[in-house]
């Protein structure tokens, strides 16, 4: 079975890359078996179903368990089921900030930015210390084209943990839309001030021009201890490479890389979530170009 999954993974990713018209060198890079639901997750899900069906819970307990099942559904990529559980739980317990955070992510992925802003505002009203809502609101504002206010949120999120490379990378993506030259200077400063060792700083090094793309991808293998960490690191790396190529106007390579991001099934990762949005935006651009062609 493991051999079959590995073969299917490689075949699927090669097909994705080939169909998107990206550069052939992507096909020679590290590949991971797409992440699969674990036996433990399946057992937990089955047990939750039994408890919810037993009708033995109070309304508060029922809402909490629905929320927990929604989180599990989300981690498996079952967003429609997760959203249904979150909505029902929220009707019983409208004071769970985490639910508004998830709904804000879903609204952002759907391009419904005003609803996303409202969801994140609700999170911070319920719990002003919930900083991940500030990050997610900053990302929603970024995709909504509201770069200065996006920067305010992402700067505050970065300040909460300056050693987290991905906070710095998202801040850089926003800064680049405001002042590209200053964005690189600021990224360099944050990189030099941070305590090294975390994987994501390799991506920052690539953005800064300190290492090549080949070196970055070679380091993916060095930092990965098993298939799970390889799939997660690849999701992160391919997403930010996709953003890099998109900034160069190379939409074919960007599309390939966003598809490779999604192919690893790291559903809970922010890079997986927004690679789907990037693909939707690229699809909209292609449709606009098609619609504008003279008949």
Automatic annotation (TrEMBL):
Subcellular location: Cell membrane
Recorded coiled-coil stretches: none
SUPFAM superfamilies noted in UniProt: TPR-like
Statement: the UniProt record of this protein carries the keyword Ligase: no
Keyword Lipoprotein: yes
Pfam families in UniProt: TPR_16, TPR_8
InterPro entries tied to this protein: Lipoprotein_NlpI, TPR-like_helical_dom_sf, TPR_rpt, Ycf3
Keyword list, A-Z: Cell membrane, Lipoprotein, Membrane, Palmitate, Repeat, Signal, TPR repeat
A GO CC term attached to the entry: cell outer membrane
GO biological processes: receptor-mediated virion attachment to host cell
Placement of TPR repeats on the sequence: 97-130, 235-268
Function: May be involved in cell division.
Subunit and partners: Homodimer.
Name recorded for this polypeptide: Lipoprotein NlpI
């Amino acid at each position: 079975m493991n051999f079959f999954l590995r073969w299917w993974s490689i075949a699927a990713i090669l097909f994705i890359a080939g169909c998107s018209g990206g550069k052939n060198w992507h096909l020679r890079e590290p590949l991971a078996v797409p992440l699969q639901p674990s036996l433990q997750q399946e057992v937990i899900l089955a047990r939750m179903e039994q408890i919810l069906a037993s009708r033995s819970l109070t309304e508060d307990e029922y809402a909490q368990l629905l929320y927990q099942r929604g989180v599990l559904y989300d981690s498996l990529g079952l967003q429609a089921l997760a959203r249904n559980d979150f909505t029902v739980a929220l009707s019983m317990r409208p004071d769970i900030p985490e639910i508004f955070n998830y709904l804000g992510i879903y609204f952002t992925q759907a391009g419904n930015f005003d609803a996303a802003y409202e969801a994140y505002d609700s999170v911070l009203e319920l719990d002003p210390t919930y900083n991940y809502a500030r990050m997610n609101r900053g990302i929603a504002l970024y995709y909504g084209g509201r770069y200065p206010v996006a920067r305010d949120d992402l700067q505050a999120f970065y300040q909460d943990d300056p050693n987290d490379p991905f906070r710095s990378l998202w801040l850089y993506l926003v800064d680049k839309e405001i002042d590209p030259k200053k964005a690189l200077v600021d990224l360099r400063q944050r990189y030099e001030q941070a305590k090294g060792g975390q994987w994501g700083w390799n991506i920052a090094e690539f953005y800064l021009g300190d290492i090549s793309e080949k070196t970055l991808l070679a380091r993916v293998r060095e930092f990965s201890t098993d298939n799970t960490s390889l799939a997660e690191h690849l999701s992160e790396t391919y997403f930010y490479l996709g953003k890099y190529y998109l900034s160069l106007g190379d939409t074919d390579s960007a599309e390939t890389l966003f598809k490779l991001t999604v192919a690893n099934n790291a559903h809970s990762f922010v890079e997986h979530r927004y690679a789907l949005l990037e693909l939707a935006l690229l699809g909209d651009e292609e449709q606009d170009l098609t619609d504008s062609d003279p008949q």
